[in-house]
């Protein structure tokens, strides 16, 4: 992104994001802040200011633990609930391999920090744990809609 004045750069980023939303290139969840930093070649604080401007206009909203969404769209549940749903899928058994941090980041469009937090919560609940070859494995299957074990 061409560097204009530091004050105006966040406005350029917010305009580009607004245009992507308007054209349907972004329909629900926005890319992670790290992905936006990389895409636009600006600092994290510039991305944060651009997102704050769009939020103030009512275009996007932030959901704790889930990311940024176009207003009125997307799955608003915390990331740990979405990741736990992987254990509810048909055919998942105790001892199965659990996806890597990288796979979860890509699947949910979440930062590595958010994914690590979700994994830590699931490990604390005994749902997943260290498996063979430095990976993680399913240790228990969740019951109901929460993240509690039997």
TrEMBL record:
SMART domains: HTH_GNTR. Residues 7-73, 73-141 form the HTH gntR-type domain. PROSITE patterns: HTH_GNTR. It comes from the Bacteria. Keywords: DNA-binding, Transcription, Transcription regulation. SUPFAM superfamilies: Winged helix' DNA-binding domain (SSF46785). PANTHER family: MANNOSYL-D-GLYCERATE TRANSPORT/METABOLISM SYSTEM REPRESSOR MNGR-RELATED, MANNOSYL-D-GLYCERATE TRANSPORT_METABOLISM SYSTEM REPRESSOR MNGR-RELATED. This is GntR family transcriptional regulator.
